[in-house]
UniProtKB/TrEMBL annotation:
Location of region: Disordered: 136-278
Domain of life where this protein originates: Eukaryota
A Pfam family this chain is assigned to: PI31_Prot_C
Compartments it resides in: Cytoplasm; Endoplasmic reticulum
Keyword field: Acetylation, Cytoplasm, Endoplasmic reticulum, Methylation, Phosphoprotein, Proteasome
Biased segments, Basic and acidic residues type: 136-149, 163-174
Stored InterPro entries: PI31-like (IPR045128), PI31_Prot_C (IPR013886), PI31_Prot_N (IPR021625)
Membrane-spanning ranges: none
Taxonomic lineage: Eukaryota, Metazoa, Chordata, Craniata, Vertebrata
Protein name: Proteasome inhibitor PI31 subunit
Length: 278
């Protein structure tokens, strides 16, 4: 509890009740957790400033203590109230931005010796246990109170992590690229999303001339290299010139060429055997 003795000595002149000592203890736990007191009361004042000390009028009301705090590294503000109920002191800590509230009830006699308020070494009882209660039940985790500055820091960390993952995936030979990359790089996989009113498009556009898949495989438009054969010029002894319109789909129905080899009878029966019935 380093620093608590210095604080306690500074406010020793205004300590008149065991509740005062308990509020002083909780105030120091707030300071250690990264907050600074900016004043007393519920409403902010023009002269508010961050300080580790307690305000001058912090113990003016023995029934209700009200202190305002602000985080050191952000704009997060909290309001601490302590209400005296019989022999207990009920602490209430509210986040001014999210309105989240945490409560802690402390039996004053269990942790403060009322007979030794002027002696720091003997005033607190089970100080370590009280400190653990304050941290666990009253003080919120810092990430819940982090606002603008810490939020921007968190965003930068997420961006750095995403960039690091992307670089590792690029160097991973077993990585399968994303189907929807966010970097703008085009992938070779076709988009399988079909518009809802595109049903029957393959029938209306069989060759896929408008960018669709089509329903007919045209060997002349398949994108593969083909010979310079033009069916519109005609096929000798088979089709006259002009029989096939230019650009029309044409499936050859026989070998192209004037001299086509005929069947060799020797290919069907056994070699040198002329009797076809044997």
């Amino acid at each position: 509890m380093a620093g608590l003795e210095v604080l306690y000595t500074c406010v020793a002149g205004s300590l008149t009740s065991p509740q005062d000592a308990l509020v002083c203890f909780v105030h120091w736990e707030m300071i250690k957790s990264g907050y600074r007191c900016i004043g007393s009361g519920d409403e902010p004042c023009s002269g508010d400033r961050k300080s580790e000390l307690l305000p001058a009028d912090w113990s003016s009301n023995k029934e209700l203590y009200s202190l305002r705090y602000e985080a050191v590294d952000s704009d997060a503000k909290v309001l601490l109230k302590a209400i005296a109920v019989d022999s207990a002191l009920i602490f209430n800590l509210m986040n001014c931005s999210t309105q989240q509230v945490a409560d802690l009830t402390v039996n004053v006699k269990d942790h403060v010796n009322a007979d030794h308020l002027d002696t720091f070494d003997r005033v607190f009882i089970n100080g370590e246990s009280l400190s653990e209660k304050v941290k666990a039940q009253l003080l919120p985790p810092r990430e819940k109170l982090t606002e603008k500055k810490a939020g921007r820091k968190s965003l930068r960390e997420e961006e750095d992590e995403a960039e690091g993952r992307r670089r590792r995936e690029e160097h991973d030979p077993l990585h399968i690229p994303s189907r929807h990359p966010s970097t703008g790089t085009q992938h070779p996989w076709p988009d399988t999303v079909v518009p809802p009113f595109a049903a029957g498009g393959a029938d209306l556009d069989p060759f896929g001339s408008r960018g669709g898949g089509g329903m007919i495989v045209d060997p002349l438009r398949s994108g593969r290299p083909r010979s310079g054969f033009d069916p519109s010029s005609g096929i000798p002894d088979i089709l006259p010139p002009g029989a096939v319109p230019p650009g029309a789909r044409f499936d050859p129905f026989g070998p192209v060429g004037r001299h086509r080899p005929g069947p060799d009878p020797g290919h069907l029966p056994p070699p040198d055997y002329d009797d076809m019935f044997m």
